[in-house]
Amino acid sequence: MIIYLQGIALTPMNASLLLVPGYVGGIFPGHTMGRLSDNYGSRGIAALGIFFSGLAIVVYITLSPIFITLYCAFSLPCYG
Question: In terms of pTM, does the model score above 0.70?
Answer without folding.
Answer: no
